[in-house]
């Protein structure tokens, strides 16, 4: 598809932030165009259905569901929202993690969480809030991998606490898939050009010139929603005036998180809506969500060190490790019941480059720097620009609405 060569507003990226911006600009009278590098919309929201089984390779949980704008949009678009509590606190049949060990590990987490919020170390390094020689350090590193995608040594206490204090702990789901919901929410009147990667952003008088392999676009305003690893990387050529934004993106790197899905075949002990932490003493452990919505599948969630193994050695190695871990808990016969189904590959997807952003120690303020408009014509959205709801699809959506508002106000001037 060739591009029209002029637009009032161009949105770069069709993820949750780009969708939020497009919905807000829809019907505004501004000629808006959306450019997306991937051959599909949704970005880090991506639902796949195979043989009747529906899984989310990216976001799956409507965190803070009671105040999450996607809950409202789901209602408007006729999607069912499942409001049951997640099974994360369940350890299926207490396998490999007894109730007393769980209580101890949870106490260690609460002590760490309390220090991070109320008595943070001067270094702002989340690892410096750990118990000295604590028995549950590997467990807390595993949780850090799931929550932030990286080790506690690289996490800012102030950034982590800002999210934690704003979150409501209501984690809901859409059985049709979070990715399906995000894609369905794209307004019909904003043209979306898929497989159209922006290669350079140039400032030309009062206009912004975007070059893509399908043509060149001149815009009055541009909303950038690409991830921090993309903004900091070399895939797009930026004007030097944007150096401070790219520097802020570098201070908010994406962590590593991947999901591997195992199909359950034959008769097996796995029960609907149950959960297992593979090995609470291994920082690279998988977290296994068993038979979500009663489907014959196990979602293995990896974070930090565990996810980096997949990025470095490939998904086949990830599947072998996940099946080995389950065989340790259930016995070798369980291997007959498990088949690799599908896996994410976020870190190696060039237009994404990782999972979700976290601030490095001392760098929580970088979120506000990244969220600043440049010269009232270049606006930044995306999960990393949200001060409290970063790393989520609802934070991304809200950032898109915020950037669209800024662009509309600037163009009205
Ligand atoms: C494994 C995993 C699990 C997660 N779980 C949850 C969860 O349960 N709940 C939750 O709320 N969040 C979760 N998240 C985080 C959530 O998915 C993201 O925070 C959110 O989707 C980010 O949206 P975004 O619009 O900011 O960025 P993106 O979704 O990355 O959208 C940006 C878009 O820009 C495009 N783009 C980049 N460069 C260019 C270019 N040069 N030209 C054109 N287009 C470009 C990209 O292809 C992409 O589609 C998870 C993420 C991962 C990876």
Q: Any descriptors?
A:
single chain, 413 residues, alpha/beta, FAD/NAD(P)-binding domain, seven-stranded mixed sheet, five-stranded antiparallel sheet, binds flavin-adenine dinucleotide
Overview of the molecule:
This protein has helices at 16-25, 69-77, 99-118, 137-148, 157-166, 178-184, 228-232, 243-250, 305-313, 315-330, 366-371, 393-412, and strands at residues 6-12, 32-35, 47-50, 53-56, 192-193, 200-204, 207-212, 215-224, 257-264, 274-277, 287-290, 297-303, 338-343, 378-380. Strands 1, 2, 5, 6, 7, 8 and 14 form a seven-stranded mixed β-sheet that branches. It is of the alpha/beta class. It has two domains: 6-41 and 186-253 and 358-412, FAD/NAD(P)-binding domain (3-Layer(bba) Sandwich); 84-166 and 257-346, Polyamine Oxidase, Chain A, domain 2. The mean pLDDT is 97. Helix 9 (305-313) packs across helix 10 (315-330). The protein starts with 5 loop residues before the first strand and ends with a helix. Flavin-adenine dinucleotide binds at residues 12-18, 35-38, 43-45, 58-61, 63, 197-198, 225-227, 230, 235-236, 257, 259, 344, 346, 351-352, 355-356, 382-383, 391-394, 396.
Seen as an oligomer or otherwise, the chain set is single chain
Which class of secondary structure composition applies to the elements?
alpha/beta
Radius of gyration: 22 Å
Uncertain regions spanning at least 5 consecutive residues: none
User: Class of the largest domain, according to the CATH hierarchy?
Assistant: Alpha Beta
Count of distinct strands:
14
Morphology call: globular
What average pLDDT do the residues reach?
A: 97
Main beta-sheet strand count, sense and barrel state: 7 strands, mixed
Helix content: 25-40%
**Total domain units:** 2
Instruction: Catalogue the ligands.
Output: flavin-adenine dinucleotide
């Amino acid at each position: 598809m060739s591009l029209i060569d002029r637009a009032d507003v161009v949105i770069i990226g069709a993820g949750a932030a780009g969708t939020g911006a497009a919905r807000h600009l829809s019907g505004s009278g501004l000629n808006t165009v959306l450019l997306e590098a991937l051959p599909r919309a949704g970005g880090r929201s991506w639902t796949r259905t195979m043989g009747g089984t529906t899984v989310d390779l990216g976001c799956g949980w409507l965190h803070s569901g009671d105040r999450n704008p996607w809950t409202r949009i789901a209602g408007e678009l006729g999607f069912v929202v499942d409001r049951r509590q997640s099974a994360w606190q369940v350890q299926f049949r207490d396998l490999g993690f007894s109730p007393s060990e769980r209580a101890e590990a949870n106490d260690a987490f609460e002590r760490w969480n309390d220090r991070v919020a109320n008595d943070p170390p001067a270094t702002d390094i989340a690892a410096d809030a750990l118990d000295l020689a604590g028995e549950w350090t590997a467990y807390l590193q595993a949780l850090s991998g799931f929550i932030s995608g990286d080790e506690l040594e690289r996490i800012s206490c102030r950034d982590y606490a800002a999210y934690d204090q704003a979150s409501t702990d209501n984690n809901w789901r859409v059985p049709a898939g979070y990715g399906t919901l995000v894609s369905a929410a794209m307004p019909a009147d904003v043209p979306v050009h898929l497989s159209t990667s922006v290669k350079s952003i140039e400032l030309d008088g009062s206009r912004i010139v975007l070059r893509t392999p399908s043509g060149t676009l001149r815009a009055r305003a541009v909303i950038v929603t690409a991830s921090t690893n993309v903004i900091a990387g070399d895939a797009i050529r930026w004007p030097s005036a944007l150096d401070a934004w790219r520097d802020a993106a570098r201070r908010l790197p994406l962590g590593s998180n991947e999901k591997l899905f195992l199909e359950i075949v034959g008769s097996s002990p796995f029960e609907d809506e149950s959960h297992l932490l593979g090995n609470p003493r291994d920082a690279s452990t998988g977290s296994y969500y068993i038979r979500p919505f009663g489907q014959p599948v196990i979602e293995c969630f990896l974070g930090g060190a565990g996810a980096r193994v997949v990025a470095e050695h490939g998904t086949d190695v990830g599947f072998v490790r996940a099946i080995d871990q389950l065989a340790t808990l259930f016995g070798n016969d369980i291997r007959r019941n498990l088949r690799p189904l599908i896996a994410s590959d976020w870190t190696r997807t060039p237009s994404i480059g990782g999972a979700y952003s976290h601030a490095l120690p001392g760098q929580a303020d970088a979120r506000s720097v990244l969220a600043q408009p440049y010269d009232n014509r270049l606006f930044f959205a995306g999960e990393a620009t949200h001060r409290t709801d970063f790393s989520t699809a609802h934070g991304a959506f809200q950032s898109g609405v915020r950037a669209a508002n800024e662009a509309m106000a600037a163009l009205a001037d």
